[in-house]
Amino acid sequence: MALLAEFGGRAPQEVPERVDSMELAWLAHVIEQRHGRRLDDDTLSRIATVSDAARLLEGLRTGPQR
């Protein structure tokens, strides 16, 4: 939630559950920069909500994800 809140300078509680294409691009960029992980198109296509993004980030913490 905090990562998506950075996009647009919002508070975490202002982030809607649905992730739009610009937020998804931002999230992919941040993950690449901070975690050194490149997300493939298949992975990105499965992210439509904040909950989806949270699961992806949890997977990055616990092991390889592609």
Short summary:
58% of the residues lie in helices and 0% in strands. The chain is an all-alpha fold.
Please provide a written account of the structure:
By secondary structure, this protein is mainly alpha-helical. The chain has one domain: Non-ribosomal Peptide Synthetase Peptidyl Carrier Protein, Chain A, CATH 1.10.1200. 58% of the residues lie in helices and 0% in strands. It contains 4 helices and no strands. The chain has helices spanning 2-6, 21-35, 41-45, 50-62. The longest helix is centred in the middle third of the chain and has 15 residues, at 21-35. The mean pLDDT is 87.
Please write out the topology.
Blueprint: H1 2-6, H2 21-35, H3 41-45, H4 50-62
Alpha plus pi helix count: 4
Largest sheet at a glance?
none
Based on CA atoms alone, the radius of gyration comes out at 11 Å
- The outline comes out as globular
Helix and strand content put the structural class at mainly alpha
CATH class, please?
Mainly Alpha
| Number of individual domains | 1
How many distinct beta strands?
Answer: 0
Helix residue percentage: 55-70%
What is the rounded distance between the termini? 21 Å
* Name given to the CATH architecture: Orthogonal Bundle
- One letter per element, helices H and strands E, the order comes to HHHH
